[in-house]
Structure formats: structure tokens, C-alpha cells
Amino acid sequence: MTVRHPHVPPFIPQVGADVAAEEERLVRTRRDLHAHPELGFEEVRTSAIVRERLAELGIPYLAGVAGTGVVGLIEGRAAPPGGNGASREPRVRPTLLLRADMDALPLQEENTDPFASRVPGKMHACGHDGHTAILLSTAAVLLRRIDRLAGNVKLVFQPAEEDPGGAQPMIEAGVLREPHVDAAIGLHLWTQLPAGTVGLSSGPLMASADEFTIEIRGRGGHAAAPHTCIDPIVAAAHVITALQTIVSRSVDPLESAVVTVARVEAGGSAYNIIPEKATLRGTARAFSPAVRAAYPERIERVVRGVCQALGAEHAFEWKAYYPPVINDPAITSVVARESRRLLGEDRVFEDIRSMGAEDMAFYLREVPGCFFFFGAANFAKDAAYPHHNPRFRIDEDVLAPAVELLARCAESALGMLAAAGAERG
Ligand code: NI
Q1: What is the 356 CA–ligand 1 centroid distance (Å)?
Q2: Segment 283-313, tens digit of pLDDT
Q3: Catalytic status, residue 103
Q4: How far apart are CA 41 and CA 48, in angstroms?
Q5: Which one is catalytic: 161, 215, 358, 411?
Q6: Is 75 a catalytic residue?
Q7: Which among 4, 58, 68, 161 could bridge 43 via Cys, Cβ 3.0 to 4.6 Å?
Q8: Count of CA atoms in the C-beta half-sphere (13 A) of 235
Q9: Could you tell me the sign of the dihedral formed by the alpha carbons of 327, 331, 333, 334, in that order?
Q10: Among residues 22, 103, 215, 404, which one is catalytic?
Q11: How far away, in angstroms, is 349 Cα from ligand 1 center?
């Protein structure tokens, strides 16, 4: 089991009365979404639930953004900072983007909760049902705290985080404009941390994720006469081994990097046939954009050299998916401070990173912000399975605290952004 800090006991903090009043609805919404999972860009029902709640709250929204995406806007009413009144021009108020992803995974749920997935082969096994419910309730709470918001909150309900990625299409559809977004915050429920803890990092938090495909062409023939063939399997074995030197011999040891060959395909028709070709597929990951940028050339150079030495031909394909998630120090310090206030000093871990990837990265490449993990593991409730596991579960008691934290982060970050704007004049 991969829970970090497993000896930190689960803890559910006191939340505001407005959040407590939301909790029943919050859990109900999460369970409803959990029972009806939808894959990326198919979140039609989910999107309808989001629209209905925003309409009920009287929050203006745009629907059909990048397909099933929904974007709501709350305009805060706190007095601008540093203003001694009428002589000052009204300033452009800062806008903070809060992001939730809505999609589920192609996986058969093995849990037997009454709200377990009712759709065969589909499951919310990453917690995105929780994220959507949390952001809806946060919207409701922020409305009650609207007099404390020194700017706008843009509520972004995004499709297809898992595959193929909905953040980039949302950005292309203009989600960072009108009003212009100054900063972004998002959270991920995390069963690798105990319930009621927060994990985050200033700077890189999650890695880039890209895919490579290597095709090695040899010459097939009888397995008893290898000298008449060019064996692509032996070439593939050497390529796999030589690829291990990329991380170990050519990336700075102080950087984090992964090159994994995850799929090998060759032959298969008989035990005594050397096949014509072998195909390797895998992923390369990094926190640093520079390490990431160097991968395609480095990997292909290894493949080219090995294949040339063994007389095989090669083809190389690189598919760029997600950049690294890189957190802004100032926004991250706001999130860390609010987390410590809510949960206590010893329940906030500021050294948590993951080589997993997240398309929140695309927003954070455009605007400063913070993505963080809200611990949701609880062994006593059998909720400590890894993400994407058919028995993935969360401790639902963390949902309301997550709303409280997100609402406080929004208020605090807007206050900071407005103060910085007032100082710039
Ligand atoms: Ni996820």
C-alpha cells in the first residue's frame, strides 16, 4: 500500500456553519455522480447536474465549453483594498479560477456500496465525482461569503482529465479570458495521504507525461536459422536495456525522471518463428521542462544506434500529452497557510510530489496557481486503495473540509491578488 504518512490518524476539522449546511447535499451529489460515471467528453449527465445547480444558485454560466465543459462566474463584493474612497478609479478586479474535473475511467467497479457504479465497465476510480461535488458546494458557500471576495471566482467544470485531456480544449475555448484569469487553484482527493491532511509542493508537483512508440523491423525466418534472419526481438531487448541509461546516465541525478517501456509486442504466432518486427510502447516523465524537451532526441538516438549495430530498421513516434504541473510559490503559500489553519501544522506536508500527470498543468503553464492533494485515505473505512484501482474509495467525511479549504483559499488568494493589484496602482 502506498499511503504516505500512514501513522497520521484521520482527522475531520470543524467547518463553517454554511459548509455544514451544505454537507448533506454535497455527499448526495457525489454519490449520484459516482453511481453514474461518464468517460471523457461524454459527461452529458454530469454536465447537466452542474448546470442545474448553478442555475439554482443563480450563478451565470457558459455551457458546452469544449464539449461538456461548464464555466460559472461569481463576482465578489468585498471593498477594493487600499481604497480610501471615491477619488479612486474602480480597478479591474482579480479573477481566480477554481477547477474541477468531471470524468470517470473505463474500469469495472468492485465495491458494493449502494452508490457503486451502475454503468458496467465505467467507474469514478480517481475521485473526480468528489471534485465536481466539492466545487458545486464551494460555489454555494462562496455565494454566502460574497461580501468577503475581493474579486471574481471562475468555476471551471472540465471534461476528460484522464484521456485525452480537456484542459487544453477549455483554454482554446477561451476559459482564461473574459474576465482575464489571474490565478488558478485546483485540488485532487488523494488516497495516498491520510484523511484530513494536505500534500503539496511549491514548484513542480506532478510530472509531464508523454508517450513513445518504437517499431523495430528485422527479417523474419526460422528460429533454428537465426543467421539467415535479423531478429527484432533481440534488438528490442537491447533497446529496452539501453533505454535505461537515459535516466541513469544522461539526466542530472538531482532531477527526477522516468523512462518506462510498458508494452512489448512481437511474434506471437509460433515458438519457432523469428518475427518480422517488434513494437515497444512506453512513457517518459519529468518535472523539468528541459529534461522533458530532451527526451525525443535522446530516446531516438539510442534506438537508432542499437538498431544500426544489429542491422535492424526503426521507426520512432513521440506523442506529447501533459506538461509538468508547476505550482507558483505565492499562491502555494496561500494554500499551505490556509491548510495549516484548517487542519493543523503537522497535517500539511509541503514535500509531496508525484510522477503521475494531470492536465491542470495546462492552466498552470498559462497563469500562476496551485494544485494540491487533499488526503482521503482511511484504513478503518477500507478506503486506502490506489487511484484507478477497481476498489478505489474515499473517506467521504473529507468532502466538507475540502469545501471549507477551497472556499478559504479562494477568499485569501483573491485578497492577495487584489492587494498586489492595488499596490501596482
Ligand atoms: Ni484524477
Answers
A1: 9
A2: 999 999 999 999 999 999 999 999 999 999 9
A3: yes
A4: 13
A5: 161
A6: no
A7: 68
A8: 34
A9: negative
A10: 103
A11: 19
Torsion sign (Cα): 133, 134, 139, 145: positive
Per-residue pLDDT at 88: 52
* pTM score: 0.92
Three-state SS at 325: strand
Which cell numbers hold the place of 269? 504466432
pLDDT given for residue 268 in this prediction: 78
Say how many Å lie between the first and final Cα of the chain, rounded. 52
Q: What is the C-alpha to C-alpha distance for residues 233 and 266, in angstroms, rounded to an integer?
A: 7
Banded pLDDT at 79 (limits 50, 70, 90)? confident
CA of 160 to the centre of ligand 1 (A): 10
61: cell is 454560466
Is the peptide bond preceding residue 179 cis, with omega within 30 degrees of 0? yes
Report all structural domains of the chain as residue ranges with CATH numbers, in order of start: 17-206+324-424 (3.40.630.10), 209-322 (3.30.70.360)
pLDDT of residue 87 exceeding 50, the answer is no
- 409, three cell numbers: 483559499
The cell numbers describing 276, all together, are: 518480422
Expressed in angstroms and rounded, the spacing between residue 141 Cα and the centre of ligand 1 is 24
Instruction: Give me ligand 1 centre to Cα 241, in Å.
Output: 31
DSSP state of 344: -
Which pLDDT belongs to residue 425? 65
Expressed in angstroms and rounded, the spacing between residue 128 Cα and the centre of ligand 1 is 6
Return the residue matching grid coordinates 549495430. 309
Closest residue by Cα to residue 145 from 54, 28, 59, 16: 16
DSSP helix/strand/coil, 215: strand
The 10s digit of each residue's pLDDT in 347-403 is 999 999 999 999 999 999 999 999 999 999 999 999 999 999 999 999 999 999 999
Contact criterion met (CB below 8 Å) for 288 and 254? no
Compute, in angstroms, the gap from residue 291 CA to the centroid of ligand 1. Answer: 24
| DSSP annotation of 10 | P
Residues 152, 74 contacting (CB under 8 angstroms): yes
Query: How many A from CA of 405 to the centre of ligand 1?
Result: 19
Q: Which residues pair with 370 in a beta bridge?
A: 185
For residue 352, CA distances in Å to 190, 240, 405 come to 11, 30, 18
CA 147 vs CA 85, 139, 376, 385, 415: distances in Å: 17, 14, 31, 41, 12
